[in-house]
Design brief:
Structural class: alpha/beta
Radius of gyration: 18 Å
Shape: globular
Distance between the termini: 18 Å
Helix content: 40-55%
Strand content: 5-15%
Order of helices and strands: EHHEHHHHHEEHEEEHEHH
Largest sheet: 8 strands, mixed
Length: 306
């Protein structure tokens, strides 16, 4: 297969810790001489990676992105500080485990998770506007970048893949809010009458969307999770048998078979320790970013392009 594009950067899901770790990695790689904010022809963002993608494509230099993660988070203007309605985390994870155990196909899993998200809206929907404002406050700019970027979500009604870009007619804030809408934890996102859920429901990374690129760099906060059982208190993620082709190893293998050169970066031991067992906890952001920065400087010697 002839490659017609050069570099694709894939940013996967992984909560607040995963987002911060990815920004740290990118800043560390840049410190080591590889500035992916400049050389990536395409950036693909899923879930927390969608926020990171918008940050990477904002025009801010890597050092500035890292500095923003290490600073106190901005408070959305005009919003009260009351916590939005929520379901107990343990209840959500128990339901997700049950959905994963019962699913017999990737699309079946996606449909069941969509149904769970729509069902949960009866409790969570009142917090939709507040959540959109929170997501917007994380973005350095609210407009789609000129350079190619796609944000991945899942249609909650039929479980199908949804890919947003600057030509989709969807505001960037809405696209990122949809991509980060994990069923049971936050409300689904309504865009033009259709509800969407977290793109990580399809795949934690969706690296298959980089097909056709000669060089692919995947930053996967959850990519090493299958290498060992999760620590106590850590959610192991949705079950994805290899035959479905939606796990990271299968997607990377398919890209390599097509002729792409793929570099995968997952958290090293220090980064995993910094990210902790609850990656949605905002308190993990600063240690995860710092660990990612140190790891990125080390990885810069390995991740090179011909």
């Amino acid at each position: 297969m002839q490659m017609v594009h050069n570099v694709a950067l894939v940013l996967g899901g992984g909560g607040a810790a995963g987002n911060a770790w990815q920004i740290g990695i990118i800043a560390g790689l840049a410190e080591g001489g590889l500035d992916l904010t400049q050389i990536a022809d395409l950036v693909i963002g899923t879930s927390a990676g969608a926020t990171a993608a918008a940050q990477v494509r904002s025009g801010m230099p890597p050092a500035g992105l890292l500095a923003s993660v290490l600073s106190p988070p901005a408070q959305p203007a005009g919003q009260n500080r009351e916590r939005p309605p929520s379901l107990p985390m343990a209840t959500v994870f128990e339901r997700m485990r049950a959905i994963g155990a019962a699913a017999t196909s990737a699309v079946g899993l996606q449909r069941a998770m969509g149904a769970f998200g729509l069902e949960s809206d009866s409790v969570l929907a009142p917090g939709a506007a507040q959540r959109r404002a929170i997501v917007a406050a994380r973005l350095p700019r609210r407009e789609w970048p000129e350079r190619l970027m796609i944000v991945v979500a899942v249609n909650a009604h039929n479980g199908e893949l949804a890919v947003f870009d600057r030509d989709s007619g969807v505001e960037l804030v809405d696209a990122v809010t949809a991509s980060t809408a994990l069923p049971g934890l936050v409300p689904t996102v309504a865009i033009n009458g259709t509800h969407y859920i977290d793109g990580g429901v399809r795949s934690a990374d969706n690296s298959d969307l980089a097909s056709g690129y000669a060089n692919v760099v995947v930053l996967s906060p959850l990519g090493g999770r299958s290498q060992a059982p999760p620590e106590a208190g850590q959610f192991e993620g949705l079950r994805r048998p290899p035959e479905w082709g939606t796990d990271l190893a299968s997607q990377v293998g398919a890209l390599r078979k097509q002729g792409s050169r793929v570099e995968v970066i997952t958290p090293d031991a220090d980064s995993r320790a910094a990210m902790g067992t609850s990656q949605v906890d905002p308190a993990t952001r600063i240690p995860a970013a710092r660990a990612g920065f140190a790891q990125g400087k080390h990885e810069a010697a390995r991740v090179t392009f011909p």
